[in-house]
Design brief:
alpha+beta; 5 helices; 6 strands; 28% helix; 29% strand; globular
């Protein structure tokens, strides 16, 4: 069973819900330089950033396809030719943080976490005010739940990303890990 925590946006992060808030290509380049700087040399040997990656999967038992696209995916190098299967972290860049971008981030998290062989983290940011993080954890009853964490300010966003990168288990960043070991992580 998967449930979603319901969080209200802090007042400084509230804005109009329906507008095209995809960053311009020039913004995307400068934003991603800042994000790529968080990847340490040790991790960059084992993980790679893949831009504009799509997850296209058929959901078992539902009979329809789920498609999601992430602006950037951090992928285990062993899986670079099938990035959605090796994805670890997804980043969605927005001009503004809106209710619609929250829902998009949550939907991308669900699609990529279903497609990936690894535990997955989805981040949504405007690179100005902070962002949102989506990940799975177990509740007190042992059920997996989707957590939405509001990251107020870019310092909080970068601290969260650095902590997430430093907490990656060594087997997750091992480009030569066999599939059976990876499956044990889920």
């Amino acid at each position: 069973m998967v449930s979603t925590t319901a969080l209200s946006l802090p007042s400084q992060m509230r804005c109009a819900a329906f507008r095209d808030n995809t960053p311009e290509p020039s913004q995307r380049q400068s934003y991603m330089v800042q994000i790529h700087d968080n990847l340490t040399p040790n991790l960059s040997n084992k993980l790679a950033w893949k831009p504009q990656t799509k997850a296209d999967l058929k959901v078992k038992g539902l009979g329809y396809r789920v498609v999601a696209k992430s602006d950037e995916l951090l992928v285990a190098k062993k899986w670079v030719n099938v990035p959605e299967a090796g994805s670890v972290i997804g980043i969605e860049l927005k001009k503004d943080l809106t209710q619609a971008s929250r829902r998009q981030g949550e939907a991308e998290f669900i699609a990529f976490s279903l497609a990936s062989n690894f535990p997955f983290l989805q981040l949504v940011t405007d690179m100005k005010r902070g962002g949102f993080a989506y990940y799975k954890q177990h509740d007190q009853q042992g059920q997996q739940v989707v957590v939405e964490q509001v990251l107020v300010g870019m310092a909080a966003f970068h601290d969260f990303l650095k902590a997430a990168l430093s907490d990656l288990p060594s087997v997750l960043t091992n480009a030569h890990a066999v599939v059976e070991i990876v499956q044990q992580l889920q």
